[in-house]
Write a structure and sequence with these properties.
Elements: H1 2-24, E1 56-64, E2 69-75, E3 81-87, E4 94-101, E5 106-109, E6 112-115, E7 120-124, E8 149-153, E9 162-163, E10 172-175, E11 178-181, E12 186-191, E13 196-199, E14 211-219, E15 225-230, E16 236-241, E17 245-251, E18 257-261, E19 273-279, E20 283-288, E21 291-297, E22 309-311, E23 322-331, H2 337-344, E24 373-377, E25 383-387, E26 402-412, E27 418-429, E28 437-441, E29 452-455, E30 479-483, H3 486-489, E31 510-518, H4 525-528, E32 534-538, E33 546-548, E34 587-590, H5 603-606, H6 610-615
């Protein structure tokens, strides 16, 4: 009996000590030791130094072409567009930086298969491009008959020193200009110092009540020059200003000159533009690419001068144009806006309703000249951000303390400049009791906060300070806070966890859209750097306590005293951030929709090849998050309703 009693006492003490240890741990989260179905433990992984934990690969495409074109980079099956923009041929390569899933090995550039073999890919576009590619603008040789035409120099001879008038009466003498490939047929190329075409004055080339002057021009230099001029200072014409770009004007019989600017700054070099001015006795108008760019009420008759017409200069003596000129037309009537647009979009030409140089079938905004393309990041759909919030202490590696899906839509114009960016953020899970915030930083070093207006954020607390434009104050780089307390944006119905424990009520994810409006015509997508944006967690409303992705730098407002405490092994001097001594992270970015693990289950227990991926520095199983047979243990992944 005594022996049995001793055994019972020992069992009681053992159970009691175990209960004391468990109860004394307070809010300790369970680890995979409590889960008999778990895979390898994160703490035991041997992750190589320098592993980035990236699920996407940054690739820079350096594209060379002998012509301008829309550039489209898609998946191999052409179902996903990674990038779309416009390459204006300027005798130098076009640089595009994109982020594609790490497991993608082949993409299509304008339909041409390109195998990804490194971080920089040089691509030369052949002239026999895949279907869907086109020269821009595409123009047929067909003519449009319009009454009032006084003369037309089409420059289609491609030889000789005479520019023939299509009407036969006003041929021009070519001085120095050389022949080249035009918007249709051939054109004349002017050197900017002496070349011109001189057309002898005639009574029929001096309209009195109305006129239209029209041509295609491609400039090779931003300089002040005349392109098509009847007379000198006392005449009418179309020209270029060094600082303000395209312009046109007339001289009235009262000896006053009136000039209009197109108000869009300097034009793209080596890119064709259709230019026209009209005057009908009441209004002077300037059109570029078929669109009215400027107008001025004006009355009076046109001044008649006895000077020649000069193409490529001012009176064949000064302000010489450097570039190409084609399809020059002179009317004694004012064409209507519809007729101007018809000349720009001649029969057979790809329609360009808004005149921005992007054909309608390639233009996401065919009626809006300020916008042309939508580019998405990630391209294929929502990406997922998953965080641990016990930093600098080691987490439990279920990566569900905050799970946020995200996707950016960047709108760019025909010059590839950003007009606005819309960031959509969806809170899907909150596996933490702390009141955490969330934000992101744009990495562009030339990006000015004052050039962006931001709205759409959701604040429920008062510890974030904003500039008047909606960006966070006192930051070196542009920083945008999306939420200051996710628990008040998407509160739990019971307890403190949201959508991480199976069987508990499912809460519909919250969707927030951040609107970022940019100063027009200033920044490219490369300047903004969406492909390398820097998301972060703000722990428990303590603004200086941030958790970023591994090796992503903190913001200006971080409290540096947290580094190298707990399990954090950051070294700001070398750019090492937010890793443990064994290179484990506190946050991961999956460039695809991600089904996270349930509470208390490490990510390795749900994604069975995750550990191999990490230990191979991402070379093995780069698609570890995809629902591929053998990749998952569904019992440890939160079931989506």
């Amino acid at each position: 009996m005594l022996f049995i009693l001793i055994i019972m006492v020992r069992l009681f003490l053992s159970v009691s000590i175990s209960l004391i240890i468990i109860l004394g741990s307070g809010c300790r989260k369970f680890t995979t030791d409590d889960d008999p179905t778990s895979g390898r433990k994160m703490e035991n992984l041997r992750v190589p130094e320098g592993f980035s934990w990236e699920t996407g690969q940054h690739v820079e495409f350096v594209i060379t072409s002998g012509f301008s074109s829309v550039i489209s980079i898609t998946s191999e099956d052409a179902t996903v567009t990674f990038y779309k923009g416009f390459y204006s041929f300027i005798n130098e390569p076009y640089h595009i930086q994109i982020l594609i899933p790490a497991h993608v090995q082949t993409v299509l550039v304008n339909g041409m298969p390109i195998t990804i073999t490194g971080e920089t890919m040089e691509v030369t576009l052949p002239e026999n491009q895949a279907p869907g590619f086109k020269y821009l603008p595409v123009k047929s040789a067909g003519e449009i008959t319009t009454s009032g035409l006084l003369a037309a120099w089409n420059f289609d001879e491609n030889t000789g020193n005479i520019a023939y008038d299509a009407l036969g009466s006003h041929n021009g003498a070519i001085s120095g200009a050389t022949w080249g490939t035009g918007i249709t047929g051939s054109c004349l190329i002017f050197n900017g110092s002496s070349d011109n075409v001189n057309v002898t004055n005639a009574v029929t080339l001096n309209p009195v009540t109305s006129l239209t002057m029209m041509l295609w021009a491609k400039t090779g230099e931003n300089k002040s020059a005349k392109i098509f001029q009847k007379g000198d200072w006392d005449g009418h014409g179309i020209g270029q200003d060094k600082w303000n770009g395209w312009q046109g004007g007339v001289r009235l019989s009262d000896n006053t000159s009136h000039t209009l600017e197109w108000n869009q700054g300097v034009p793209l070099l080596n890119e064709w533009y259709h230019l026209a001015i009209t005057y009908d006795g009441t209004t002077l108008k300037l059109f570029v690419n078929g669109q009215l760019k400027n107008s001025q009420p004006l009355t009076g008759t046109l001044k008649v001068n006895n000077r020649n017409i000069s193409i490529g200069s001012d009176n064949a003596s000064q302000k010489f144009f450097k570039g190409s000129v084609d399809e020059v037309k002179f009317f004694g009537v004012a064409l209507t806006p519809e007729e101007i647009l018809t000349y720009y979009n001649e029969p057979g030409n790809a329609p360009d309703t808004d005149g921005d140089g992007i054909p309608d079938n390639d233009d996401f905004y065919p009626s809006d000249p300020a916008r042309a393309f939508d580019n998405y990041f990630p391209a294929a759909g929502d990406g997922s951000l998953a965080f641990e919030d016990l930093w600098p202490g080691q987490g439990d590696y279920d990566f569900n303390d905050l799970v946020v899906d995200y996707r950016f839509k960047a709108v760019t114009n025909a010059s590839n400049k950003v007009t606005e960016i819309y960031g959509t953020f969806i809170i899907r899970a909150i596996g933490a009791g702390l009141s955490n915030g969330f934000g992101f930083q744009l990495p562009g070093t030339t990006l000015l906060s004052s050039d962006i207006a931001v709205d759409g954020y959701k604040f429920r607390e008062n510890y974030i300070t904003l500039n008047l434009n909606g960006t966070e104050a006192n930051q070196e780089k542009v920083t945008i806070i999306v939420y200051d307390n996710v628990n008040k944006i998407m509160p739990a119905t019971a307890g403190s966890f949201v959508n991480v424990v199976p069987g508990k009520p499912y809460i519909t994810p919250d969707t927030t859209v951040i609107n970022m409006i940019f100063t027009q015509n200033k920044y490219t997508l490369n300047d903004v750097g969406l492909f390398d944006f820097n998301p972060f967690l703000i722990i428990n409303k303590e603004r200086g306590k941030e958790v970023h992705l591994p090796d992503y730098p903190p913001t200006t407002l971080v409290n540096m005293e947290y580094f190298n405490t707990g399990q954090d092994d950051s070294d700001p001097a070398t750019g090492r951030y937010y890793k443990t001594s064994t290179n484990l992270p506190w946050g991961i970015n999956i460039v695809s929709h991600y089904q996270y693990t349930i509470e208390n289950r490490q990510i390795t227990s749900g994604y069975l090849v995750f550990a191999t991926w990490a230990e191979s520095s991402g070379t093995l199983y780069p698609d570890w998050y995809i629902d591929t047979p053998g990749y998952r243990n569904e019992a440890n992944i939160y079931p989506m309703p």
